[in-house]
Structures are given as C-alpha cells and as structure tokens.
TrEMBL record:
NAD(+) binds at residues 280-292. The record marks 136, 187 as: Important for catalysis. Its main location: cytoplasm. This is 3-isopropylmalate dehydrogenase. The lineage of its organism: Bacteria, Bacillati, Actinomycetota, Actinomycetes, Micrococcales. Binds 1 Mg(2+) or Mn(2+) ion per subunit.
Length: 345
C-alpha cells in the first residue's frame, strides 16, 4: 500500500535554505521506489517575510503547519532583523505552540571524523533537552531601559508537569539503550528552586525505571567531562537553556556543528514534530555554498524515524557514516555533499 507523508518546510534564513535543499534532495532519494511518497509545502517565514510584512508567524501559517505530518526547519535569524524577533517570534513560537517538549539531540562520533579531543573514546549519547519551559518562555521584563539603573529579568519557569513529562521521556529512552544510564545536568547547588524540582522529579520517576542507572552532574562540571571523558554520558536530561549550551559543545566534540541534528518532538503526537539542525543561520558563511548540510540530512533521518520509516532513516545514517569516513580533508560544497548522500541512499 502506498503511504504519503506531508512535510511542512520552513527553510528560514542564511544557510537554512541551502542545507534544507540538500535535506530534501536526500529525502526524495531515500523514498524513491519505497512505496512512500512525500509532499512538501514550503512556508515563506523568516527574515524576508518580516521585512516585507512585519510578520513572524501569523496564526494562519501556524494553523496550516499544524495540519502536516512533520516539519523540516533550516534555521532562523538574520543580522538585518533585531535579535530575538525571529528566534522568539518564529522558532520558539513554533516549539511552544506545538508543545515540542522533548528537544532531542543525539551526539555520536562517527568513525573517521576529526575531533578536537585528545582521547575521545566511544562517544554516543543523547541530550533530552526540555523544549517548552525554562528561561526561554519569555517570562521577563526590563525597567529603566538604557539608563544606568536598568533592571532586566529573565525568569526560568519550571513546572512539575513540564519537568515530569520530559524526565519520563528521557528515562524511557535510557531504558531502551544498551547502557541504560541517565545523567541529570543542572545547577541545583545554586538554582535551588528549579534544581531541586528537577532532582526530586528524577528520583521519583526513576523508581519506575529500576534498570536505569542515574547520576547527577552540575552543568559547569559537565563541560569538563564532555571534553575529558564524553564516554561517561549515555542519556543527559536537562533544561532548555543548559540543553542549548551543552549541545553546541556536544556538536563541537563530535565533528562540528555542521553534523549535529535535532528533533523538537511532541511524544504524544498531538501535533507535528519539527526536525532541524542544531546550528543557526550562520550569516558568516551564508550564500557561499560552504555550509555542511549533513546536520540537515541527519535531521531528515530523525524525522523519518519519528514517522515510523526506520529503514529509510538507517539508510541515511549509513550513507552519512560512509561519507564522513571517506571525507578526509577534501573541501566540498553544500550541494556536492547533498548530491553524494542522495546518490548513496
Ligand atoms: N535553530 C535556529 O534556527 C537557530 C538560530 N540561531 C540564529 O542564527 C544566527 C547565527 O547564530 P550563531 O550564534 O552565529 O550560530 P550558528 O550556529 O549560526 O553559527 C556558529 C558557527 O558555526 C558555523 N556553522 C553553523 N552551521 C554550519 C554548517 N552547517 N556548516 C559549517 N559551519 C556552520 C558558522 O559559520 C559559525 O561560525 C543568529 O541569528 C541566531 O539567533 C542560532 C542557533 C539556532
Ligand atoms: C535561537 C534559539 C532560540 C535556539 C537555539 O539556539 C537552539 O535551539 O539551539
Ligand atoms: Mg543553540
């Protein structure tokens, strides 16, 4: 029986459209002849739309996106748009409105990939970053702006409901992995209110997962271990801000930000989940055909896995692994990498 999947595409800004084009190329190639067809709908959202109309994510677009099976996003953010307008008004609005409470960010050091680490060992962990709360909710404000007496607050919101559901998801992932180990990363020695909620929640939920070994690392020390002993991590669960920071370092130690994929997942499947590279719009290299599209391609694999197309996801990962192993020091354009991966799947 033929199956059809409907993907909303928000290519966005900077290198977003460049890497997304390669992701879609590989998506088409991997589904060719598979019995699954894909229909993609591009959404004109990002800096160009904002410049033209002043809009970031109007309700009509959000509702149209909601009707798809999944979303593929490139990146948003542009030097010509005030910082935060697109990041909050488009990207975070999508994550919050669609209740993407699990921000899934796998980190794996593929064979043959250069790492800045002296002794990496085997690196294969996943960060389960909370996606709808923390300091990113916009619970803040400023007074006396621009004066020497300015006061600016950005309050981190952590609800028992929100922490419990993401912690439970992280435990479920840990229990399904061979090592069955979960590390809570936080800063409960200082952030005692939020930190203790996270700690108590991990303790309580852990009782339902007796086969999972649990430990705790303060976020500052986690930065040490990610560099000195990343093999110690299997599943990391953490809040929205810490997870954002941890996963850029995780990318850097596993071959660079151009390889790091992510999923903004609604595990309850009441809304379409959204898949995107961990990186941003990289205005410093935009338009030069230099961006590595591998992160976007691996994000397509995460999307296929989420949609129940595990074989196709594995084929993409296998193609990426082979491509990375063969890369050496050759410099290839964005399209050359995409073409090679599309041919390989
Ligand atoms: N998910 C999203 O849409 C995100 C958007 N942003 C936005 O992107 C803009 C730029 O932010 P930055 O802090 O510079 O982060 P960035 O991730 O865009 O770039 C950081 C560094 O990584 C490099 N880089 C990024 N992606 C690459 C790729 N695929 N291949 C090779 N090199 C790559 C860039 O050239 C730059 O040197 C800002 O407007 C920011 O708010 C940042 C992070 C995530
Ligand atoms: C631009 C931020 C809202 C997002 C970000 O840096 C991320 O999700 O990694
Ligand atoms: Mg980030």
């Amino acid at each position: 029986m033929t199956r059809s999947i409907d993907v909303a595409v928000v290519a966005g800004d900077g290198i977003g459209p460049e890497v997304t084009a390669e992701g879609l190329k590989v998506l088409d190639a991997v589904l060719a002849g598979s019995g699954t067809t894909v229909r993609t709908t591009p959404f004109d959202l990002g800096a160009a739309r904002w410049h033209r109309t002043g809009e970031t994510l109007p309700d009509a677009d959000l509702e149209a996106i909601r009707g798809h099976d999944a979303i593929l996003l490139g990146a948003v953010g542009d030097p010509g748009v005030p910082s935060g307008v697109l990041e909050r008004g488009l990207l975070l609005k999508l994550r919050f409105a669609l209740d993407h409470y699990v921000n899934l960010r796998p980190s794996r050091l593929f064979p043959g990939v250069a790492t800045p680490l002296a002794a990496p060992g085997e690196v294969d962990f996943v960060v389960v970053r909370e996606g709808t709360e923390g300091p990113y909710v916009g619970n803040g404000g400023a007074i006396r702006v621009g004066t020497p007496h300015e006061v600016a607050n950005e309050v981190s919101v952590n609800t028992a409901f929100g922490v419990e559901r993401v912690v439970r998801d992280a435990f479920a992932r840990a229990t399904a992995r061979p090592r069955k180990q979960l590390t809570l990363v936080h800063k409960h020695n200082v952030l005692v209110h939020a930190g203790h909620l996270w700690r108590r929640t991990v303790e309580a939920v852990g009782a339902d997962f007796p086969d999972v070994t649990v430990d705790y690392v303060h976020v500052d020390a986690a930065m040490i271990y990610l560099v000195t002993n990343p093999s110690r991590f299997d599943v990391i669960v953490t809040d929205n801000l810490f997870g954002d920071i941890v996963t850029d370092l995780a990318a850097a130690i596993t071959g660079g930000i151009g390889l790091a994929a992510s999923g903004n997942v609604n595990p309850d499947r009441t809304t379409p989940s959204m898949f995107e590279p961990v990186h941003g719009s990289a205005p410093d290299i935009a338009g030069q055909g230099k961006a590595d599209p591998t992160a976007a391609v691996l994000s397509v694999a995460l999307m296929l896995e989420h949609l129940g197309l595990a074989d196709e996801a594995r084929r993409i990962e296998t193609a990426v692994a082979a491509d990375l192993a063969a890369r050496g020091t050759a410099v290839r354009s964005t399209a050359e990498v995409g073409d090679a991966l599309a041919a390989a799947v």
